[in-house]
Write a structure and sequence with these properties.
The complex is a heterodimer. By secondary structure, chain A is mostly helical. Chain A has 29 helices and eight strands. The chains are: A mainly alpha, B alpha/beta.
Chain lengths: 684, 323
């Protein structure tokens, strides 16, 4: 006899009918739950879903392929769930178990339906059956293992993990479903008495059956029937409760992964026409967010990874990305659901009632929360959208507002005289575009390099290195203006656009194609912000450029005899270089070359794309920070903890913040740009 | 011919430095256009203050001395000023651009139905009228304006007009007749919370001495930075680092997130010269830097640099200056 088992074996016809009736009821409850939330998402600003499928098949596919790939790799492949201690791997274990059991149940139903049509279509037998039974039996264990882990974890409840009472129901019912599944399997084997492979292919089930061997066949039959119903009702309960519990992320997570904007460091532009049409800028009410953003609120599992990665949260500021998302979700539910007509309860406002101003201004735009979110929720863009509104309404005051005014009046945030912009380069022989119109690469200096006496040294070091290697470069000199990066991230979109438009015109005048920048903020803005306004450039960081010069043999770096403690060096990855733009090898390569073969390079615990912010991004450079707990001090502690005598950086903001941080901790380490470390070694 | 009335601002003991610029302004107008100016001092027991104003060539120094004027309360001050303008037939009323003037002068102008402009940095005669240049939008715009009406109220920026020249003539002292009963009394003086330090405000002072991270505690800050400021008659400032560590009070911070100063002389002692600090002192005329680290960025902007330990150099400097 072929190994198989009868679908709905031991289940009377009447029960089967009730079963299918309950299936329909469950699906209706499930569909209503989804529809209920879907109606809320639809109230956001439309995002042009239809654009995905406009044009020919090939064009549509080109647009759908990247999100579809993300769905496979990050949804099914669980790529972004990895990490985070045991929780990441265990989720993958539980997910694998769940998916296989889900797939198995689906296959069983397909077989049941198809064999109803013709016995020839019956495939749930033979080798297939053996593999099927074995796989489900093993993956069921994985599922249970995951459930047990998360049950245990929730009893210990990490601080960043959100919790609702229904979470116990979800995990509890998962556990009971898993266990009752095995009991069911064991009871079946008791009354069905399979032998050989048909029994051995379900090892766990067989084990249960052996422990139940004292039960009579008839007893097993009735127990099987009872447990079957128990199991079925729990499964119905689970499916029906998906849209009403945290399980909703099974639906919204993949949806958000599909629809989310995947490129870090990119903002959604706003045009003057839009503002004239809508008579608003940014977000001041929940339905000003777009549909994907509203959907993303429902994708949040409150896993807390964003909160743990957030430098503002870590330093006691009133900001947790998770809480922002959850608060907005609550507001969405409250204000977009249809309300009873007689409700007099006033709805909370988005600003102040729901999201405090201090929360918005605490963000350093470091992008760590976006990077770590397993389902690609983007709290940063939410914050930017709300900041835009606050700035548009004139709600930003103080030093950051002053910096914005100065960017407008003097094209630099310190309000220093614009004509002094090129003073740093006097006597260096750095040609301007006018002096050297046939340059290969434009060196973009940025405001810090132009005006900050400390950062000017970085610019000079870079120029000396470029000249040493005989690079054909030019600078804009007095024609350069602030990129407007921090204006945009503070929410002043139109000041940014004004500065960007002026810079793009200047860059076009000199036919600039390739830009070299030592400031990751300028780099990201020139690369991603400017592209939205017609400025397409190849933008590279000075560490990349220098690393290439070294690789090409255009820079001869003398080998170092110095070694050991004296040149113990660590490197602080700037957020906008490492995390947002994925550049972390080049600065290390240059440092290795500069420090020599016997170098003592020490990594900080948080490095590369997991770097911890210096505290100056997102316009925080222009704001006062409570001295009791500064982001820069926390990071400086980490840097000094490596025992390094030199803290190398690759960003002028980081240079300022880390210098302050090290000095505040009375540390003796020198804080230097990578280019300065190299220039020092080359005695330039 | 102009009749100019200068409102003197004081702290009960001496005239505020900025008032001298208003007198300088009056001297300038009178020199160019003829006419004379008078100075009005309001307060209680202010004869010494009035005396100190007699050497600048005013036609007279008017003293409005009354117990009700002991504190600068805008309702009665405005009333007295308006009365004096009427009796003196003044056509221009000028004060220093200060909080005091902002509080009092617009009310006096309103009583006389006169126009007022603030923050004047330049004046030009235009026929029988004047053209003023004034600062707007936090210094980003300079407006050129005329002021209509027979009486003009204005405040002048202290940095824009030089202190007045002393003249040989001693101005006469004239008491303003006051009846306490006639003075408005809608405002009640409750109390005053003043900074204990008797030093000038860093945004007003011609000399500012600032301390940075090199200073290790509050006592040293007072002894070294305060001591040097005192021998120079200057104000005290601080970098953010000292404010953070509680060594210097918040009110002293100079820089991007503190005060913006523009003195004639700025002494940065133990300050490395981070851009956030420099942004607050960029308009200084002469910068002197004292720092142990010869490589500190502050030396790049300093007109005079002294490489040395603040703890050693500053006491020596104070000693030398005392001689």
């Amino acid at each position: 006899m072929q190994p198989t088992r009868e679908t709905f074996g031991n289940i009377p016809h009447s029960s089967q009918l009730v079963f299918y009736f309950l299936t329909v009821v469950t699906m209706v409850i499930f569909a209503y739950g989804i529809w209920r939330r879907f109606k809320l998402w639809r109230k956001g600003v439309t995002v042009g879903w239809k654009d995905l499928i406009v044009g020919g098949l090939q064009q549509s596919w080109a647009r759908i392929k990247p999100p579809a790939q993300r769905l496979l790799v990050e949804g099914l492949g669980q790529k972004r769930v990895r990490g985070h201690g045991l929780a990441g791997p265990m989720h993958i274990v539980m997910f694998a178990g769940f998916m296989i059991l889900f797939l198995g149940t689906t296959m069983l139903e397909i077989d049941h339906l198809s064999s109803g049509i013709s016995e020839a279509l019956h495939f749930h037998k033979g080798t297939y059956y053996v593999i099927y039974e074995f796989t489900l039996d093993v993956f069921g264990l994985l599922f249970l293992l995951g459930c047990c882990f998360f049950f245990w974890r929730r009893t210990r409840r990490p601080a960043s993990l959100g919790h609702r009472a229904t979470d116990w129901y979800v995990l509890g019912s998962f556990l009971v479903i898993g266990v009752s599944g095995y009991v069911l399997e064991g009871l079946r084997m008791v009354w069905q008495q399979p032998t050989g492979l048909a029994a051995q292919c379900s090892p766990v089930g067989l084990l249960v059956a052996q422990s139940l061997s004292e039960v009579s066949i008839d007893g097993a039959r009735s127990a099987h029937f009872a447990v079957w119903w128990f199991h079925a009702v729990l499964v119905f309960g689970f499916i029906a409760s998906i849209p009403y519990t945290r399980l909703m992320h099974l639906i919204t997570g993949p949806l958000n992964i599909f629809f989310a904007q995947p490129i870090l460091g990119k903002l959604i532009p706003v045009s003057m026409e839009e503002v004239e049409k809508t008579e608003r800028i940014g977000v001041s009410a929940i339905n000003h967010f777009n549909q994907q953003q509203l959907l993303s609120f429902d994708a949040c599992m409150e896993c807390g990874r964003c909160e743990e990665a957030c430098p503002a949260f870590a330093t006691g500021k009133p900001l947790s990305p998770k809480k922002v998302v959850q608060d907005l979700k609550r507001l969405m539910t409250l204000s977009l659901s249809s309300r009873p007509k007689n409700s007099n309860f006033p709805l909370p406002n988005l600003h102040d009632d729901t999201i405090q101003a201090e929360t918005l201004w605490s963000c350093t735009a470091c992008t760590a929360c976006v990077k770590v979110c397993p389902v690609r929720i983007d709290p940063l863009t939410l914050i930017f959208d709300m900041r835009r509104n606050r700035v548009g309404e004139g709600e930003l005051s103080g030093t950051a507002a002053t910096a914005l005014r100065r960017m407008q009046s003097s094209a630099n945030p310190w309000g220093l005289p614009a004509p002094d912009r090129a003073n740093w380069s006097e006597g260096l022989g750095a040609p301007t575009c006018q002096e050297n119109p046939n340059f290969e690469v434009l060196y973009w200096i940025g405001c810090a390099g132009s005006f900050d006496r400390r950062a000017q040294r970085v610019a000079r070091a870079v120029v000396k290195i470029l000249k040493q290697a005989g690079v054909n470069f030019a600078i804009l000199g007095r024609e350069e203006k602030c990129t407007g990066e921090s204006a945009r991230r503070l929410g002043d979109e139109f000041l940014f656009q004004e500065l960007a438009t002026a810079n793009i015109a200047t860059l076009a005048k000199y036919n600039v194609r390739k830009i070299l920048a030592h400031c990751p903020h300028c780099l990201n803005s020139l690369l991603k912000d400017y592209a939205q306004f017609g400025g397409q450039y190849e933008v590279i960081h000075h560490t990349q450029f220098i690393s290439q010069l070294i690789a090409d043999g255009r820079l001869q770096v003398p080998s170092s005899e110095e070694a050991g403690q004296s040149n113990a060096t660590t490197y602080h990855d700037p957020c906008y270089l490492a995390r947002v733009n994925g550049i972390h090898d080049a600065p290390r390569d240059v440092l290795q070359t500069a420090l020599g073969a016997k170098s003592d390079f020490r990594e900080m615990p948080r490095n590369r794309d997991k770097t911890f912010c210096c505290g100056a991004g997102g316009g925080r450079m222009w704001m006062e920070e409570d001295p009791r707990k500064r982001v820069s001090t926390v990071r400086a502690d980490e840097a000094l903890g490596t025992g390094a005598k030199t803290v190398a950086v690759g960003c002028p903001f980081c240079l300022t913040m880390m210098t302050d941080g090290v000095a505040a901790q009375a540390g003796s380490a020198r804080v230097m740009d990578v280019a300065e470390v190299l220039a020092e070694r080359m005695k330039l | 011919m102009s009749e100019i009335l200068v409102i003197a601002e004081h702290d009960g003991e001496q005239v505020k430095l900025a008032t001298l610029s208003a007198i300088g302004f009056a001297q300038k107008i009178c020199a160019e256009r003829g006419g004379q100016f008078v100075v009005l001092v309001l307060g209680h027991e202010i004869s010494l203050i009035a005396d100190s104003l007699r050497t600048f060539g005013a036609a007279s120094v008017l003293i409005a001395d009354n117990l009700a004027l002991k504190e600068p309360l805008a309702d009665r001050y405005a009333h007295v000023i308006a009365e004096v303008v009427r009796t003196q037939n003044a056509t221009i009323v000028v004060g220093a651009a200060s909080t005091y003037s902002k509080d009092i002068l617009p009310r006096a102008a309103a009583l006389l139905d006169a126009g007022m402009i603030s923050d004047v940095i330049e004046v030009r005669t235009d026929g029988s009228d004047f053209v003023f240049r004034r600062v707007m939008y936090a210094g980003n715009v300079i407006a050129t304006v005329k002021l209509a009406g027979a009486i003009k109220f204005l405040t002048v920026r202290s940095s824009a007009f030089p202190p007045p020249a002393k003249t040989g003539v001693i101005s006469s002292l004239v008491s303003v007749a006051l009846e306490s009963g006639n003075l408005p009394a809608q405002i009640e003086f409750v109390g005053r919370e003043a900074k204990v330090a008797g030093r000038p405000d860093s945004t007003e002072a011609r000399v500012v001495v600032s301390g940075g991270r090199a200073i290790k505690n509050s006592e040293d800050f007072e002894r070294l930075i305060g001591g040097l400021a005192d021998v120079l008659g200057g104000a005290v400032g601080s970098s953010r680092a000292l404010v953070d560590s509680g060594i210097a009070p918040n009110s002293l911070q100079v820089g991007q997130t503190g005060k913006v100063v523009a003195p004639d002389l700025y002494i940065a002692a133990g300050i490395s010269g981070a851009i956030q600090h420099m942004a607050g002192m960029k308009d200084t005329k002469v910068i002197v830097a004292i720092n142990k680290d010869a490589d500190a960025p502050i030396f790049e902007v300093a007109d005079y640099g002294l490489v040395g330990d603040v703890y050693q150099v500053v006491p020596e400097l104070v000693e030398k200056l005392k001689k």
